[in-house]
Amino acid sequence: MTNQQTVPHGIMFHHFHDERHVNGQGTISAKQLEQIIEYYGDRLLPAKEWFSKAKANCLAEKDVCLTFDDALLCQYDIALPVLEKYSLTAFWFVYSSVLAGGIEKLEVYRKFRTVCFSSIDQFYNDFFSTLEETEYQDMVAKSLENYSHENWSNFPFYTKHDTKFRFIRDTTLGVERYNKVMDVMIKKHNIDITDFSSDLWMSVDNINTLADKNHIIGLHSHTHPTQLSMLSVQEQENEYRKNFDFLREALGQSPKTVSHPCNSYSTDTFSILRNLKIEIGFRANMENHLFSEYEFPREDHANIIRRIEQ
Ligand SMILES: [Zn+2]
């Protein structure tokens, strides 16, 4: 067992696939979730037990919990029945704009990449070539001088195209310019966004069902900014306050936990979370450093799958 596995931590899940929810980059099946659950065996604790032990600072090194980010319907449809088969409960970190009827483009774009292109590299090629038709062409070329695939060693499952795409999206373009490029691409495909996004997110009923079944629903911001720590303190406060108020209203109880969207947070974020009386939080990596109550480590399911399949 490596050093990494001997701290109490969460396992972080995102997308699942079956007949209804499309098989794409980073998705796993119900069967693979079962393999992960069996791999960890009795190290896995129900969410409420893990939470109590974390608060009391008495988690054992081996203690692991399951976490699901982003309020995705595929998690509810595919992962929940598996958890029930094993009598397990989990943390579900919910960004609330999508439960309030909003659409967040990050997820729409992800589905677009998955269903409209035969491979992710075909998408990247289209994206990189669309970029060259835009006014951002020079800006991108210049910024790539600072790009290095090696900087992403914490995410060993990313290919060079993955990291280059993420670098351009997050560092060079930023949200607005990136969205413009993607909207140009989507327009070419004649997609109706409302219809296209109807199977992406859970409903308020779904999260109530989870809470009734002893799962823990936690914060994940309101609109899921990709770089929350770059926002002003006031904007960060709005993100978490709206998220908190929405979930408290929907569930009839105050959320006590958080996971940081895109692992982005600052000391200002911690002050905001303390004001909301959030008790524990999760980051999105297993880096070996001292951490606060808002930085419990998490292992990405992709790393575990690779370990199991080796
Ligand atoms: Zn997220």
Automatic annotation (TrEMBL):
Key words, A-Z: Signal
BP GO terms, sorted: carbohydrate metabolic process
Keyword Cell inner membrane appears in the UniProt entry: no
GO molecular function, one term: hydrolase activity, acting on carbon-nitrogen (but not peptide) bonds
Keyword Transport found: no
GO cellular component, one term: extracellular region
UniProt cross-references to InterPro entries, sorted A to Z: Glyco_hydro/deAcase_b/a-brl (IPR011330), NODB_dom (IPR002509), Polysacch_Deacetylase (IPR051398)
Cellular location(s): Secreted
Entry-linked Pfam families: Polysacc_deac_1
UniProt-listed PROSITE patterns: NODB
Main location: secreted
Limits of the NodB homology domain: 62-310
PANTHER family, per database record: POLY-BETA-1,6-N-ACETYL-D-GLUCOSAMINE N-DEACETYLASE, PTHR34216
Protein name: Polysaccharide deacetylase
Organism: Ectothiorhodospira magna
